[in-house]
User: Fold this.
Amino acid sequence: MLDSVKATVEDPALVRSRRAQLVAAAIALFNRQGFFSTTVKDIAREAGFSAGLIYQYVGDKQDVLFLALQKIVETNKERIPAALEGVTDPLARLVTAIEAYCRVLDANGDAVLLTYRESKSLKQAHKDALKQLERETNAMLSACIEDCIASGWLRTEKVELLTYHIVVVAHAWALKHWRLREITTLDEYIRLNVHSAWQACLTPQGKRHQVRLQAGAQSAR
Amino acid sequence: MLDSVKATVEDPALVRSRRAQLVAAAIALFNRQGFFSTTVKDIAREAGFSAGLIYQYVGDKQDVLFLALQKIVETNKERIPAALEGVTDPLARLVTAIEAYCRVLDANGDAVLLTYRESKSLKQAHKDALKQLERETNAMLSACIEDCIASGWLRTEKVELLTYHIVVVAHAWALKHWRLREITTLDEYIRLNVHSAWQACLTPQGKRHQVRLQAGAQSAR
Amino acid sequence: MLDSVKATVEDPALVRSRRAQLVAAAIALFNRQGFFSTTVKDIAREAGFSAGLIYQYVGDKQDVLFLALQKIVETNKERIPAALEGVTDPLARLVTAIEAYCRVLDANGDAVLLTYRESKSLKQAHKDALKQLERETNAMLSACIEDCIASGWLRTEKVELLTYHIVVVAHAWALKHWRLREITTLDEYIRLNVHSAWQACLTPQGKRHQVRLQAGAQSAR
Amino acid sequence: MLDSVKATVEDPALVRSRRAQLVAAAIALFNRQGFFSTTVKDIAREAGFSAGLIYQYVGDKQDVLFLALQKIVETNKERIPAALEGVTDPLARLVTAIEAYCRVLDANGDAVLLTYRESKSLKQAHKDALKQLERETNAMLSACIEDCIASGWLRTEKVELLTYHIVVVAHAWALKHWRLREITTLDEYIRLNVHSAWQACLTPQGKRHQVRLQAGAQSAR
DNA sequence: GATGAATGAGGCTTCATTCAT
DNA sequence: GATGAATGAAGCCTCATTCAT
Assistant:
C-alpha cells in the first residue's frame, strides 16, 4: 500500500510521519479549494515545509491526492470495527455499524465529497486501489446484514444492493449537507432516512427482535 | 437565466445555437477528462470552431462549466412534467415521476457525477442558481408526495426529507454506477432501492391502493 | 498626404468624411487610454460604425494613429496663419503667433502629449511625415523671428534654436499640465515662461518698440 | 519604496540584484521598442533568465515599467547633490545643478522620453510615486534658486514656475534630440537655451556677480 | 535530508484582421 | 459599401517540477 507511491527517502518512520503531515495539509486544502486549485506550494506551506521536499516523499502531485483519499477511506474503514467491539447481537451490530459509519462521515465532513469530486484525477491503479478499499468497508456492513439474515431477522434479494442503499444514503448526508442541515439534524436523518433503508427488509421475527432490543436499550439507560 | 453569462454577440438565436454546441462539447469533455483537465481549446475543437469564438458567447471558462451544469440540471427538471402528462392518480404520479427521474439520470449518466464533482469550481452566484434549479426539481417530487398524503396514501414526518431520500438514492445510480452495474440492473435498482425509499411510509389504505394500481397496470398490458 | 494611407473605397469625399469620423474617435480614445490599450473595436464603436469598415479606409491600426497624429499637428499648423491675418508689425506678429500657438496647444490639450507618447509606434515613413509637418509649423515661428531680426528688434545666434526654445516651453504647458495648472494659469504661463524665452534676445530698439506696441494695445482697448 | 512592488523571494540582496538586471534589460528594451511592444519573454531573455522568474520579483509586467521609470527618475535625482558637493556660492550652485541635470538627461537619453511616453500605462499609485520623485528632484533646483533670491542675485514671481521652465527646456534636449542634434551641441544648447531661462531674472547685482564668477572660472583654467 | 530559487511548458484570454452575407 | 461573426496568433501569467547549495 505504501509502495504504490514512491519515496526517495529511506527511513520508513520518517516517510510515514512526513506523509502524515502532507496528507493532513492536503485534505484540508483540497476540501477548501479542490485539487486543481491547490498548488504544491500551498500544500508545502500548510504542511510546514518547503516545496521541494514534497518530491522526496511522493512522486507526483497526483500521489498526494491518492494518499489523501486513501487516508479518508481508510479512516472510514477503521472506525466500524472499533465501534462493533463487544457488540454481539446481529441486529444490534448492524444498527451500531450504521450509526458509527454515519458519524464518521459527519465528522470527516467534506472528505467524502472529496472522494466523489476528485477521484477522477487519479491514475487508474490508484482509482482501483480506492475502490477496493471502499468495497472492503462495504463488506463490513454486508457481513452484519448477512448475520441478520442468517439469524432470520432480515430478508433481501441482494445483500450488496441493500448495503449500497445504506451507504449512499449515509454519504448523502455529506454530499447534500448544504441543504439537509437546513431541514433536519444528523440524528433525525439517521433515524428517518438511513435506518429506513433496511427496515423494509425486516422479517416479522426481525421486527419483534428489534422491539425487544429497543426496549432493552430503553431500560438500560 | 441567459444573462447570468455575458455574450458579445447580439443575435439571440445565434447565441442559443452556438451555446448549445459549446455546452454539448463541454459536457462530453468534462465527463471524459474533468473540468480542469479540459482546455478551452479542447472545447473549441470538439465544438467545431475556433478558440477565440468561445469568448464571444461566454465571459469565462467557468461560464462554460456553469452552462453545462445548468443544462444538465434543467434537462432533469424538464423530463418529469413531460412524463406526468395525463397521469392523474396521486400514487401513480409519484411512481411515474420517480421512474422518469431515474431514467433521465441513467441516460445523462455521468453528467450527474459532473454536478457533484465540479460545482465547487463555480462562482457563488452560479452555485446558487444551480441549487435553486435543483430545489425546483425536487419540488416536483415533493408535490407528488404531498398529493399522496392529502389522499391518505402516505404518511411522513418531513416531506422534503423523504424527497431527498429518493433523490439521493436515484443519484447514487449514477454516482456508483461503476459498481452497481456489476450487481444489478436499472429496473431492479429502481424497484429494490429507489421505490423502497418511500414504501415504508405507505398507510394501510396506501398499500391497498398500490395493489389495486399494480393489478390495473398488469391487466392493462 | 492622403495616399500615404491606403483605402479600398473609391469615392474620395466618402474617404475624407469617414476618416474624419475615425480620427476624431481615435484622438479621443488614444488620449483617454493610449494607443495600445485602445482596440480597433473601441474606435469603431466610438466612431459609430462597424469594426470591419475601418479596414476599408485604412490599411492598419497604425494608420489610424498616423492619421490622428497628423490631424493634430496639422491643426496646430493651420491656426497660426489664421491668427496672423491682418497683423503686419513684425514684433506684433511674433507675439500673436506665439499666443495663438499656446492657445491651440491648450485647447488640444493632451493631443500634444499624444504626439510625444505614441509617435514611437509609427512606421518610419509616417514618423518622417510628422516631423516634416512639425518643421513646417516651426518654420512659421522662425519666419516671424527672422522678420524681427531684419527689423532690428531681435538678435540671436541661431534662429531655429530660439524657435525650439519657444516651442518646447509651449509644449510643456501640455506635457506638465498635471502640475502646472496647480501653480499658475495659462495667461501667466505665457507671460512668464513662454515670452521670456525670446525677450532676452530683444535689442535696445526692440525693447523700445515693444513698449510702444504695448502702449498702443493699452490705448486700443 | 521597494515594497510598492511585491516579490515572493525573501532574500533582499537577491531581490535587489535580480531587479537591477530586470530593470536594466527593461530600460534597454522599452527604449528600443516601447513598453507594449516589449514582451515579458523579451525582457527575460535580455536579462538572461527564464520568463517565469520575473514573476518572483515583480507582480506584473506593469511593475517592471514602474521599476524602470523609477530607476530613471532616481538616477536623475541622485546626480545633482553629487555635483553640488563642495560648491558654496549660490549662483555657482544654480549653474552647476543645471549643468549636472542636463548632462544626466543627455546621458540617459531616451530614458526621459520613456517617462513621458509610458507613464500613462502605470497604475495610479505608481504614477503618483513617480510624480513625487520628480517633485523632489525639482525641489533641489528650486532650493538653489531660492538661495540666489535670498542673496539678492535673482528676482522672480514664482520660484516653481521658473524651476519648471528650466526643467522642461532641459528635458526638451532629450525629447527633441532627433532635431536638435542637427542644429546644435549640448554645450551650446545649455548656454543658449537652458541658462537663458533664468538669466532674464538676474538682478543688477546678480549680473555683476555672474561676471565676477565667470572671470574667476576663466582665470582658474 | 531540506531549502527555495529557477525553469519552461502550457493555459486562458485578447484582439487585429478577414470574409461571407 | 457595410456588417459583425469568425479566425488564430500571440501575450501574460501560473505552477509542477528540478537542482544547486
Chain A has a mean pLDDT of 91. Chain A has one domain: 2-220.
